[in-house]
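User: Quick sanity check before I run a bigger batch. Here is a single chain. Can you write out its predicted 3D structure?
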Amino acid sequence: MTEAKGMFLPRAEDLAKCVHCGLCLQSCPTFRLLRLEADSPRGRIHIIRAITEGRIEATPVALSHLDLCLQCRNCEAVCPSGVPFGRIMERARATVMAQGRRAPASWRLRAALLRFFVLHPERLALVTLPLRLPGWHGAQARLARTLPRPLRRLLALAPPPAGRPFRRYGLLARPRRPARLRVGLFLGCVMPYLFPGVHGATVRVLSRNGCEVVSPQGQACCGALFAHSGDLPTALELAKRNIDAFLDAGVDVVAINAAGCGALLKEYAELLEHDPAYAERARRFSSLVRDVTELLAELPLEPPQSPYELSVTYQDPCHLAHAQGIKEAPRRLLRSIPGLRLLEMEHPDRCCGSAGIYSLNHPGVSLSLLEERMDEVQATGARVIATANPGCMLQLTAGLRRRGLPGRVAHVVELLDEAYRATGPRRDGPERERPEI
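Assistant: Done. Predicted structure follows.
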């Protein structure tokens, strides 16, 4: 491996932090399901360390255990030694990918497909076009009976009909009163096409709470899907584009409503710490990033006034609860809505099995985890599942559809927006907001 490729090697000091105590085992989704040491965090660290030190080869069997990891980072949340498992796994996968033809063909194909679609918004717009066509819901059920199994899995994850894509730049909203903050909205790659309503709700809620909202031109995918898949060079290039776009826009805060994206945005400083041209800019950028629930809880929030009767259970997105350590903020927002009953499930911070594109790569494990989630959701009797990440929204919607359960999945900010609309407009509400939002 060349020196340039060696930059992605897992750090020896990170690996050394694991003392193999086993406290992570029952928090690891794959270990709980499979009961195999090699599919636990400490087992995977042992494999990574052995490969890094040259004691074993990166064989297909060894790499299969790394590939089964959901990178939910639940192990980090319970680790007494502070093992940065997410960073270790990303670097291990990147090291394998940097070896070119020695990398598994499935990994190389996955990286190529991500680059083909995610880096080109016009292609994402094309493949998601059916979601915006009349009669999509009925067509989805008919197609499910005719397509081969891999395509049926993909179709099962399709969200309900979506509105117009939300790819808008410049000023999105300005409150009548003096703005508390100039907030840069991070659009991401998936949310604008699959859940455009979440962006609309985010703009309305932020502006109602005194924020000027802008969407900087030049922003791109956050890079999380690439980092998790071992394509760190692409993730680094996307990070630089986003840093330039938001810092040049002069925003006070970078707001993100996708937990998986937010976790990586906050880690740009770490990704680029050795880049002389971007290290300082990356630190500045990461210090500005806030999940939208985190930001709204900090403002402080103007609570809705009218009762909005809902029974809601909350699913913690892994990269919000475990990677960012944010659990209370979204619940505080939900509790601020009069009439809303928050019914906690037994294990709200366990992974739902989505994990980016994991549900397509490992449908068996993903489905088993989804079934666990739906059992707990059903036990609450809630009619709404609230969460804060598009992958979780897709997976949980598929779970409701699979069981034929009534109800829906909503982003926390969507429920807050609905409650405000029930309350009615403020006299000092948004001065300017694009009508299509």
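Confidence is low (pLDDT under 50) at residues 1-5, 427-437.

User: Great, the batch can go ahead then.
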